[in-house]
Each structure stands twice: as C-alpha cells, then as structure tokens.
C-alpha cells in the first residue's frame, strides 16, 4: 500500500471483526436469552432494539468523543462499554433480571456505535489514492464475523465448567471477551491524530443540510432499508424456534443473512451504483426486498427462511450503501462528523423502534403478517423514492442544476460507497468525466 500502513490496516480489520462478532452474537442469542428468563415473547426482540438505540445515541456524540479522547482512547472507551455490557448480560441471565438484560444490550450497542468509525480511522492513515482498498480491507472483517458470531452463540449457550446456570450466560461472556481482544488490538494500531474543528470556520446549520430534498431522501432510504431488515431479523430466531427448527439451523440462517449483508459490498455494489446511480440502485434494492417478502411469505420451510433472509441482506446492502452515497454529496468536509452522527442517530433510532414493533407484530399477527407489514413499508419507501428521483431530475435539468449535481463524489467498487480516487458519478446515474469543485452550501 505504499505509504499506507498496511499492518495497521490489517489490525483495524481485526478490530472491526471483533465488533461485528459481538454484534452478530447478540443478534443470534439475545431474543432467545430474554425468553429463557421469562420475558414476554412480544418484548424479547427489543433486546436488539436496545442494542440499536445504544448505537444511535452514541453516534450523536461520536464527534465530541473522538475530538476529546482521540481515536485510540475513543475506541478503547467503546470497548469498555462493550465489556461492561457483556458482564452485565451474564449477570442478568444468572439472576434472571429482565431489566438488566436490556441495559446490557444497550451498552453493547454503544460499543458497536463507536466501532462503526474504524473504517474512517483507516482512511486517516493512508494517502488519498489508497483509501478505497484500505476501507475494503477493514470491512472485509465483517465476513469473518458473519460466521464467528452465530457459531460462538451455538458453542457458548452454556459453560458448565464455569458453574453458570443460565443457558445463554456464556454468550454474553463471549461478548466481553471479544471486547477485550478488540482493546488489545487497538493498542497495536498507530492512529492518526484527530484534528479539532477550525474555530474560524462557521459550520453549516444542520437545518440547511437536512432540509434539502436530496438529504431527506438519502437518510430516508437508509432508514427504511435498515428498519425493514431489522424488523425481519429481530424475531427470526423466535419464528424458527416456533416452527421446530433447532438453534443450529437458526444460526445457519443468520450466518448466511449476515454474509449477504457484507459480501455484496466487496464484489459488486460499488460497480452497480457507479453505473446506474444511487437512485436507481435504491429502487433495485426495494425490488429485492419485495422478492425477499414473497419468499418468506410462501411457506415457513427452512429454505424459505434461509433464501429469504439472504435476499434481505442483499437488499439492505444495496439500499444502505446507496443512501450513504447520496448523503456524502450533501455536505462539506467541515460538517462531516456532525452529519454522519445525526444520520446514524436517525437510522439506528428508528430501527430500534422497528425492532420493538416487530416483536408485538409477530405476537399479534404472526410471521406472515409481519412480512406483509414490512412489504407495505417497502412499498411506501418505493413511492417516496420515485418522487425524490423526479424532483432530483427536475433540478438537474433546471437553469442552475441540482445542488447535488455540482458536488462531485466517487465510489469504490470494492467498498460500495466509500471514497475512491476515480469513477465519478452523479446520484441519478449520469457520469461526469472530470473532477468538479464543491459548490458553496
């Protein structure tokens, strides 16, 4: 990688893998763990909701945390939160404290929220033309975590040699272990110093940034996609258990779902968005969501669960990446940390509420009913996207052009939405041949 510190990039990939391992482990085990200590089945999926809310709230303060502590101590603080969450979760299982398990999942979620910034840390220790492969390498840790988390959940349902009584206490202890490993890896990385904001620069008002139709569409697409994915994923373990599938097969369905969430970003999402644009790619993602719903609604056989959740993961990857690409053209560098934090706050906050709603919906109307609800949500998102696309096209053809049209940005075929040195594209799919300057906001 030339001047890019390849060793540090590999270590950051390991850090990201440990973060996502804890995430996939909690997703696999926490709803079942909640039910096992007497929590109502309609509320049990909200363990994942609390995880997402924790990630949302910490995202709102991420800029302040990293500015005050720096990257190393900021990530270390996240590990400490995840460690505390894992230990509290194990205690909650042992003493059968329902309220404590939700607090534990919340703390683990805050660790996940700060861990999301490993990909940005990778770009800070590389030359500009080496950022795309660096980010791709860091994100590749997600593929390992897709299998490591659920498999760990299967193997750690109980640790009798530790004298634990509850079936899922070991799962939370492994979350704590993952955060300890993460902390040890952080100590091996030479992070770039975090630059404090220039006091002479006046930040753009958030109302102005998020008041633009393109910003609204970008946040909405990513939020619709993440919420729809979470609403199907949260009660999945309960639905499969109710249909008589063992935890091993439930974990297999989740493993392939997680794999489909990250693999497309490495092999093709970037190329897709580069050639057809984020708006069209988002539309394709919504179509794939509809295919997912059809497969899940046909029957509740093993192949329906597995194939449906694979399509769910692919659709999420395309829509979430497309929303990210749209958003990157809506703000200037000085506003990046604030806008990214608010964006994640909205996405994870709404998804957390969706997780809670999915539990009640599954209890009230069953799995098929929940699938129809998500399908309706995707239909609403498709109508919203079509209207936004027409508005963007009219602005692009107007006398002054679209504001986004004058903001050049690039995407990486390897990372599906991260900055890359070449391959300019406008949000509605019209490519530009040369780098254009960012107009004033």
TrEMBL record:
Single GO MF descriptor: transmembrane transporter activity
InterPro entries given in the database record: MFS, MFS_trans_sf
CDD domains referenced in this protein's UniProt entry, alphabetically: MFS (cd06174)
Record keyword Signal present: no
Membrane-crossing residue ranges in chain numbering: 44-63, 75-93, 99-120, 132-152, 172-194, 215-236, 256-273, 280-299, 305-330, 342-363, 369-389
Entry keyword set: Membrane, Transmembrane, Transmembrane helix
Matching PANTHER family: MAJOR FACILITATOR SUPERFAMILY PROTEIN (PTHR23534:SF1), MFS PERMEASE (PTHR23534)
Designated name of the protein: Major facilitator superfamily (MFS) profile domain-containing protein
Species this chain originates from: Pelagomonas calceolata
């Amino acid at each position: 990688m030339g001047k890019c510190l390849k060793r540090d990039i590999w270590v950051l990939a390991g850090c990201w893998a440990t973060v996502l391992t804890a995430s996939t482990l909690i997703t696999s085990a926490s709803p079942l763990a909640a039910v096992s200590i007497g929590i109502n089945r309609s509320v049990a999926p909200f363990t994942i909701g609390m995880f997402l809310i924790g990630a949302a709230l910490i995202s709102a303060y991420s800029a302040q945390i990293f500015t005050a502590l720096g990257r190393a101590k900021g990530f270390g603080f996240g590990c400490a939160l995840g460690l505390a969450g894992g230990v509290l979760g194990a205690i909650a299982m042992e003493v059968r404290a329902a309220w404590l398990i939700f607090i534990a999942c919340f703390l683990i979620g805050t660790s996940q929220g700060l861990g999301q910034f490993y990909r940005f840390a990778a770009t800070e220790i590389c030359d500009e033309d080496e950022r795309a492969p660096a980010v791709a390498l860091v994100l590749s840790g997600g593929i390992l975590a897709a299998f490591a988390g659920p498999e760990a959940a299967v193997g750690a349902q109980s640790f009798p040699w530790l004298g634990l009584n509850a079936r899922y206490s070991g799962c939370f202890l492994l979350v704590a272990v993952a955060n300890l490993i993460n902390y040890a890896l952080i100590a091996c990385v030479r992070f770039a110093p975090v630059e404090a904001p220039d006091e002479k620069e006046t930040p753009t008002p958030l109302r102005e940034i998020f008041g633009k139709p393109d910003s609204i569409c970008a946040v909405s697409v990513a939020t619709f996609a993440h919420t729809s994915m979470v609403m199907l994923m949260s009660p999945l373990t309960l639905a499969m258990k109710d249909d008589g599938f063992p935890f091993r097969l439930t974990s297999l369905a989740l493993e392939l779902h997680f794999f489909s969430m990250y693999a497309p970003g490495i092999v093709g999402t970037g190329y897709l968005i580069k050639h057809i644009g984020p708006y069209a790619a988002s539309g394709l993602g919504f179509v794939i969501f509809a295919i997912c719903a059809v497969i899940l609604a046909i029957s509740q056989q093993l192949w329906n669960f597995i194939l449906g959740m694979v399509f769910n993961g692919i659709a999420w990857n395309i829509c979430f990446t497309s929303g990210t690409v749209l958003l990157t053209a809506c703000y200037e560098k000085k506003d990046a940390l604030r806008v990214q934090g608010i964006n994640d706050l909205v996405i994870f906050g709404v998804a957390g509420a969706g997780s809670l709603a999915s539990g009640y919906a599954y209890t009230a109307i069953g799995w098929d009913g929940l699938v129809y609800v998500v399908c309706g949500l995707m239909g609403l998102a498709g109508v919203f996207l079509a209207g936004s696309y027409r508005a963007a096209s009219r602005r692009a053809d107007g006398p002054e052009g679209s504001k986004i049209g004058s903001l050049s940005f690039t995407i990486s075929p390897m990372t599906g939405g991260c900055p890359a040195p070449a391959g300019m594209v406008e949000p509605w799919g019209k490519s530009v041949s040369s780098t254009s300057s960012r107009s004033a906001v």
